[in-house]
């Protein structure tokens, strides 16, 4: 620590105060001031407003989550807010509070939470006001870059969803594959007249291979957004049975879906291992040579097909709300030529690869910011003034 930084306590740097009680019936848009609660900025109210800039800390739930508020606000009693910055830079205080591990604090009742008096006793180091402003400017620049990258990812995701909707229904096509500009009306809506409308049973077959010998194979789980994942790696703990002899084998390039929960979008494509295991509550199938797997997988992961699965589940004769192969295989899909399927899949893969790179960039930016906070807020690296 640099010798000209002040070693003190948080209570000497600022004053925290608990937010105000507000009946639930009044937590609505009654005024022009944001209400800040454990969920962030959630509504509006015009009583007991706090003038900006404001810094708010969650007392419960995700302990120590910190918000920087730039307009008049109304803090709920589930939060602490900085009542007095005592002449310090508010934005610096925001980053200082972000760097504190509030998990170590708890209410005297034993309920995990951030207690104001305990927080006031926390030791901190305080640079001069000039250096506070410089540190805040550096870290806020990091935050702006993170925000812009987050917004870019959201825009790219939205673009991909729109592109999927157009490409997978034939509303947008590539000229080399167009043999007719006409459309045909089918059970699943309008599709190009040179496409086919077929049921899944015509392009895939049900697979039921059990792990009867009890082989020690990786166990997979199916997630709504990520498809099939290695269960241990994804969840960080074992959530499957010790006895996997009743589990189903899902081979490389086979599909699996949660028979009882497919309406949630729980369908995946196996690209992780030559052979793996899946819960017996899943249905496994594989396609034939007239369909490109990545095209079909993209189609089945759309919101349109999630809704189709939901309707099919509701109409199923199985009263347990499952969608077994007999009903699933009757679902219709639009099918262009194999070459067009491959091309569409490649375009969507390119979108996915771009999103992966942007997500990695975002993670690196967040890590970079954390590293800078660690260096700048301890004086190990000095912000030039």
CATH class of the largest domain: Alpha Beta
Give unreliable regions as ranges: 27-33, 41-45
Radius of gyration equals: 28 Å
CATH architecture annotation name of the largest domain: Alpha-Beta Complex
**Strand percent estimate:** 15-25%
How would you sum up the major sheet?
Answer: 4 strands, antiparallel
Q: What is the tally of beta strands?
A: 21
| Helix and strand pattern | EHEEEEEEEHHEHEEEEEEHEEEEEHHHEH
Question: Helix tally?
Answer: 9
CATH superfamily of the largest domain: DNA methylase specificity domains
Task: Provide structural commentary.
The chain has 385 residues and is of the alpha+beta class. It folds into three domains: 6-126, Adenine-n6-DNA-methyltransferase TaqI, Chain A, domain 2 (Alpha-Beta Complex); 129-194 and 336-385, Helix Hairpins (Orthogonal Bundle); 196-335, Adenine-n6-DNA-methyltransferase TaqI, Chain A, domain 2, CATH 3.90.220. It is 33% helix and 23% strand. The protein has nine helices and 21 strands. It has helices at 10-13, 90-98, 116-120, 129-167, 231-235, 293-300, 303-315, 325-328, 338-376; strands spanning 6-9, 15-18, 34-37, 40-44, 54-58, 66-69, 74-75, 79-84, 123-126, 183-186, 189-192, 196-199, 204-207, 220-223, 227-230, 248-251, 255-258, 267-269, 275-278, 282-287, 332-335. A hairpin with a 2-residue loop joins strand 10 and strand 11. Helix 4 (129-167) runs antiparallel to helix 9 and helix 6 packs across helix 9 (338-376). The longest helix has 39 residues, at 129-167. The radius of gyration is 28 Å and the shape is elongated. It starts with 5 loop residues before the first strand and ends in a 9-residue tail after the last helix. The relative contact order is 0.12.
């Amino acid at each position: 620590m640099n010798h000209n930084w002040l070693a003190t306590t948080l209570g000497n740097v600022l004053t925290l105060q608990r937010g105000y009680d507000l009946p639930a019936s009044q937590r609505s848009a009654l005024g022009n001031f944001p209400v800040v609660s454990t969920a962030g900025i959630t509504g509006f109210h015009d009583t007991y407003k706090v003038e900006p800039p404001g810094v708010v800390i969650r007392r419960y739930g995700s302990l120590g989550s910190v918000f920087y508020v730039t307009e008049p606000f109304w803090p709920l009693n589930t939060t602490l807010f900085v009542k007095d910055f005592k002449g310090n830079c508010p934005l610096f205080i925001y980053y200082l509070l972000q760097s504190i591990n509030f998990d170590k604090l708890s209410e005297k009742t034993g309920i995990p939470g951030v207690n104001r008096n305990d927080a006031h006793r926390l030791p901190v180091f305080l640079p001069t006001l000039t250096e506070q402003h410089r540190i805040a400017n550096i870290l806020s620049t990091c935050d702006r870059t993170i925000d812009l990258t987050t917004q870019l990812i959201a825009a790219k995701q939205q673009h991909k969803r729109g592109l999927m909707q157009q490409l997978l229904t034939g509303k947008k096509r590539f000229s080399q594959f167009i043999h007719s500009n006409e459309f045909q009306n089918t059970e699943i809506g309008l599709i190009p007249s040179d496409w086919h409308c077929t049921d899944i049973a015509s392009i895939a077959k049900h697979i039921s291979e059990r792990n009867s010998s009890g082989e020690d194979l990786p166990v997979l789980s199916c997630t709504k957004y990520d498809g099939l994942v290695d269960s241990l790696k994804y969840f960080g703990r074992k959530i499957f049975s010790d006895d996997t002899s009743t589990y189903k084998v899902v081979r490389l390039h086979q599909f699996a879906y949660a028979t009882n929960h497919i309406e949630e979008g729980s369908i995946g494509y196996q690209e992780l291992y030559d052979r793996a295991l899946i819960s017996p509550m899943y249905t496994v199938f594989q396609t034939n040579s007239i369909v490109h797997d990545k095209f079909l997988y993209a189609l089945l992961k759309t919101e349109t097909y999630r809704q189709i699965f939901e309707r099919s589940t509701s109409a199923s004769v199985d009263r347990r709300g499952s969608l077994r192969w007999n009903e699933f295989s009757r679902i219709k899909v639009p099918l262009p030529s194999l070459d067009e399927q491959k091309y569409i899949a490649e375009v969507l893969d390119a979108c996915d690869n771009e999103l992966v790179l942007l997500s990695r960039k975002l993670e690196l930016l967040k890590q970079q910011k954390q590293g800078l906070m660690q260096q700048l807020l301890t004086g190990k690296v000095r912000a030039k003034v």
